[in-house]
Design goal:
The chain has 73 residues and is mostly helical. The protein has one domain. The chain is built from three helices and no strands. It is elongated and about 50 Å long.
Length: 73
Amino acid sequence: MTQDVTTIFAEVETRAKHLVQSWGKFRTDMERYLPESYHEEIQTLSDGLDAALQRLLHDKPLNIQIEIQLLFD
């Protein structure tokens, strides 16, 4: 069970890294083609994504593992 949870968290982290890379490329394109008046909103979106990923990846994963284990016990 613990191995399965560890594998899940590793996959989530890998996918989060891909999301960050994809967003970075998309953001660059948006900033290139959209007027500068949109750049602040794009930055806000980037900040929101960063905050969400920080919570997902660094916010007490051990507690989540314990909760998942309790569900299956």
